[in-house]
Amino acid sequence: MSYAILQQGASRSFLDGDPFLAKASPADDADVLVCIGAAPPGNQAYKAIAIELDKECLADHVGFDAPPANVFGFARYRNGSDAPSRLVELVRLPNSDPDALKAVRQVFEAAGLAVSVCADHAGRIIDRLVRPKYNAALRLLDEGLATQADMDLTCRLGLGYPDGPIERVIRGGLADHFAVTSALFETFGASAYAPARQAVIAARREKRK
Amino acid sequence: MTSTIRTVGVCGAGGTMGAGIAIVAARAGFRAISYDVGQDRLDSARAQTAAFFDKSVERGKLPAEERDAIMARSETTTDLAELGECDLVIEAIFEDLQVKRKLLGQLDAVCPPETIFASNTSTLSITEIAAGCSRPDRVIGLHFCLPAQLMKLIEVSPGLLTSEATLETAWAWTEKCGQMPVKTQDRPGFILNALLVPFNNDCIRAVEAGVAEPADIDRAIKAGLGYKMGPLELIDLIGLDTQVRLCEAFYPVTLDPRSATPPLLRRMVAAGQLGRKSGRGFFAYEGGKMFGA
């Protein structure tokens, strides 16, 4: 499945020099158009169009009323400033065309990426699920449950995680965690998404710089 | 003042966790007395213990004479009074506060005053369990991970009245066993379950909300975060009924909405979809293989 890239500005999914960018076909020859920071063209000559998302939903781009069935959202998961992971969260809509979905999926899988399909919800899969856990870990740390080192060690040894929740969220950037959780809290209104104290402070300090 | 541990009793040793804890103690050179109410359960646990060490011998990790010495140090009893010789008694019985309190009261009557009582509870308060005996200063939480004989981590949790000496003695004992202790406050779920139980519930709710299929959620967590096992596969392994019990232990204490039992979980348990052990949970299982991932 061939793909073309329409890019304006930097991508969070594919950093400069990423082979995925280099292997793209000319726009006229492609089955799938991957839009990075750029609005898709008006004509719908492509089998499928994939729009890179950040914290927003796909509906931010296509609206709610009769969205095109061949347009999808995608984001390669990154923990803040960490390098992109091999996961692509591929966002579909209720009226998505299964063949078009298959085409986009093939494009990413052919690049060696793992694809998880999800609905157009805030936080998609990972941020929706892990950000409350990071918040809880930061709050429990504040409340003296254990030291940061012991909390991280417990998750590594007890659950087999490659890293603990606090070391991970700090490595990705507490200010980034603030930005992600603020967006989720705005949507869900649930206290689990309210940014933890350390993230609030990190964001304030960064703003003062 | 710290005390010396020579003999360790394990209550509920007929269960998977209790048997593993007894292995940890005996392997480290301590005399280990396994107690349970039924001899058949103890016999089964002893057979599993022997099989575990036989495998270690076969793999060349343990000399045969060391295995024989460990097995000789491993005793079983259905008579609680025989735990009177123990310096440390670890209970790994059913997760019920009243039952654990009652057991500690009984141990109080048969053990010398200096014996330390430890609870392997994963959800209950050490302080509340300790209220069942007359020596709350000598009661501590030692939460092992399953399977105890393979997992190094132990959450060590002093209750409000636990003495420093008890903490030091228990801590030193875990280290002598080659385990990795971490100190936590006496709070529901300590570290591990305080983070895991709500996270697992969030994953179940994401399925219920139609965010993604179970296989997509598990793939995302593994590929995006590097976890070895997806959360929904893990819940299937733990047992959906066990997850309900964890929620029921957590939510009334924490009132954290994330700890409340997700409605989908209740429905699946009602339908007999308990996970791997019933052949169906978030995934299907047949002949040791998982389907739908």
Structural features, described:
The complex is a heterodimer of chains A (209) and B (293). Chain A is α/β, with parallel strands linked by helices. Chain A folds into two domains: 3-118, no CATH class; 128-208, N-(1-d-carboxylethyl)-l-norvaline Dehydrogenase, domain 2 (Orthogonal Bundle), CATH 1.10.1040.10. Chain A contains eight helices and six strands. In chain A, strands 1-2-3-4-5-6 form a six-stranded mixed β-sheet, covered by helices on one side. Chain A is elongated, with a radius of gyration of 19 Å. Chain A starts with a strand and ends with a helix. The model of chain A has no long low-confidence stretch (mean pLDDT 95). In chain B, α9 crosses α10. Helix content of chain B is 46%, strand content 15%. In chain B, a hairpin with a 2-residue loop joins β9 (284-286) and β10. Chain B is built from eleven helices and ten strands. Chain B has two domains: 7-183, NAD(P)-binding Rossmann-like Domain (Rossmann fold, 3-Layer(aba) Sandwich); 194-280, N-(1-d-carboxylethyl)-l-norvaline Dehydrogenase, domain 2, CATH 1.10.1040. Chain B is globular, with a radius of gyration of 20 Å. Chain B is α/β, with parallel strands linked by helices. The A-B interface holds A 77, 85-87, 89, 114-119, 121, 124-126, 128-130, 132-133, 136-137, 140, 143-147, 150-151, 153-155, 157-163, 165, 190-192 and B 145, 151-153, 155, 180, 182-185, 187, 190-192, 194-196, 198-199, 202-203, 206, 209-213, 216-217, 219-229, 231, 257-258.
